[in-house]
Amino acid sequence: MKIDWNSKYTTISAYTVITFAICLAMVLFVVCFSSITGALGAAVNTLSSFVWGFVIAFLLNPVMLITEKLMKKLLEKKKPHPKLCRFISTFVAIIFGIAVISALIAIIVPQVLESIMTIFSNAQNYINNIYSWINTTLAEYPDVANYLNDQLDSIENTILTAVNSLIPKVGDWAVKLKDGAVGFAVGLKDFVIGFIVAVYLLLDKEKFIAQAKKLVTAIFPDRVAYEIKRISVKINDSLNGFITGKILDSFIIGVICFILMTIFKMEFPVLISTIIGVTNIIPFFGPFIGAIPSALLLLISEPTQTLPFIVMIFALQQFDGNILGPHILGDSTGLPAFWVMFAIFLGGGLFGFAGMILGVPIFAVIFALIQEIIESLLTKKGLPTDTDAYLPEPPPQKRSIKPQKNKKST
Questions:
Q1: How many other β-carbons are positioned within 10 Å of the β-carbon of residue 269?
Q2: Angle, CA of 56, 245 and 50, to the nearest 5°
Q3: d(C-alpha 204, C-alpha 198), whole Å
Q4: Which of left, alpha, beta for 392 (phi over 0: left; psi -120 to 50: alpha)?
Q5: Which of 16, 18, 42, 302 is the most buried (most CB within 10 A)?
Q6: DSSP state letter for 55
Q7: Which ranges of 264-336 does DSSP label H, i.e. alpha helix?
C-alpha cells in the first residue's frame, strides 16, 4: 500500500505527534525539575574552580599584557624570548593579584570589623544622640518631637526584644557557623585552585583562543562562524574595557572618599569608604546604593555629620560622573540612560549583585548587535537608518489668510 505523505491527514498526524512530544518533554521537565537543577548545581559546584580561574585570568589579563610589553622592550633587544616574557608577565600578574587581595584583607577588614564592633557597643549612645538631636532641632515643635520620641521608644523596645529572643538561638548559630566555616573553606579551596587555573590560562591564552576558533570553524558554516567570532571579540572588548575601567574608577573614588572623610574627621571612614567604593562599581544606581546606608549610619552615630557627608558624596559623584568616569571609561557602553537602568534591573533581578555589574556591558553588546541588524535590514529596503528620520513630523503651520476687500466697480 502506497502512503501519500503529502496528504492532509498525514500532515495533521505529524503535527499531532510533534505537539504531543513537545508537551511530554515539558511535563517531564516540570516533574524532574528538582533533579535537573540538582544535577546542574552539582556541575556548577564541580566547575566552580574553573569559573574562578576564568574570572581571575580575565581580571589579571590587562596587568599581564602591560608587563609583557615592558619585558619585550627589556629582554628582546637582540633576540626574541616570547616564552620567557610570557612567564615573567604571568608571574607578575599573579603576584599583583595576590598582593591586592592581601592588602585589602590586611588593611580594610580589621578596620571594618572594628567599626562594626564600635557600632554595636555604642548602640545606646547613638540612640541617645538621636533623642538629643530631635529634641534640640524640634524644640519649637514639641508635638512633633514627642511623636518622634515615641516612635524611637517603640523601635528601641523592638530591638531589645529581638536581641533577647536571639540569645537562646546562640547554640543553633554555632552549628550554622560551623557549616559556614566548612563552606568558607570549600570556597577558599576553589579560589586557590582558581589561581592555579588562571596561571595555565594566562600562559597559553593564545592557544586556548585558537582551539575555540578551530572548534567554531569546524562546526558552523563560514558566515555563522565569522559572526560568532566577531560577536565574541565585541563581548570581550566591552567586558574588558568596562570592568577593568570601572574597578579602577571605583578604587579611586573609594580612596578620595576616605581622604575627605579623614580631613573632615567623620566617623567610620574606612567602613563607609569601602561601601562607597564597592557599590560605585554598579552603574547609575551605585552611588545611591552606597550613600543611603552610609548616611543613615552617620545619622545614628553623629547626626551633625550627615548633611556634610551627603554634600560631599554628591560633589564626589558629580566629579566621578562628569570628569573621572568619562576619562577612564570613555563611552565604553554607548547605552542611553534608560537602557542602562533597564540592564541593571534585569541583571540584578536575575543574577543579583554580579548581574548589576555585568548586565550593562553585556546588554550594551546585545543592544549594538540588534541596532546593527535593524540598520542592515533598513539598508536593504532602501530606507534611512537615522532614528531622527522616524520622528513624527510637526503639523503644518496654518497661515492666516486676510480677507480681501471687495473692490468697488467703477
A1: 19
A2: 15
A3: 10
A4: beta
A5: 302
A6: H
A7: 269-279, 286-301, 306-319, 325-329
265: left (phi over 0), alpha (psi -120 to 50) or beta: left
What region, left, alpha or beta, does residue 352 occupy, with left being phi > 0 and alpha being psi -120 to 50 degrees? left
Q: Which residues of 139-177 are buried (b: 16+ CB within 10 A; e: fewer)?
A: eeeeeebeebeeeeeeeeeeeeeeeeeeeeeeeeeeeee
Contact 306, 299 (CB under 8 A): yes
pLDDT at residue 10, as a whole number: 66
pLDDT recorded at residue 337: 66
Q: What number is the average pLDDT over the span 19-27?
A: 78
Q: Do 228 and 84 contact (CB within 8 A), yes or no?
A: no
pTM of the model: 0.60
pLDDT at position 173 is 47
User: Rounded to 5 degrees, what angle do the CA atoms 326, 331, 336 make?
Assistant: 110
Q: Are 360 and 242 in contact (CB under 8 A)?
A: yes
Non-local CB neighbours of 262 within 8 Å, separated by 6+ positions: 269
Cβ atoms 86, 68 nearer than 8 A: yes
Q: Cell numbers of 12, please? A: 495533521
User: What three-state secondary structure class fits 170?
Assistant: helix
Backbone angles phi, psi at 197, to 5 degrees: -60, -40
Higher-pLDDT residue of 68, 184: 68
pLDDT digits (tens, 9 = 90+) for 180-234: 444 555 567 777 888 888 888 888 888 888 998 898 899 888 888 888 888 888 7
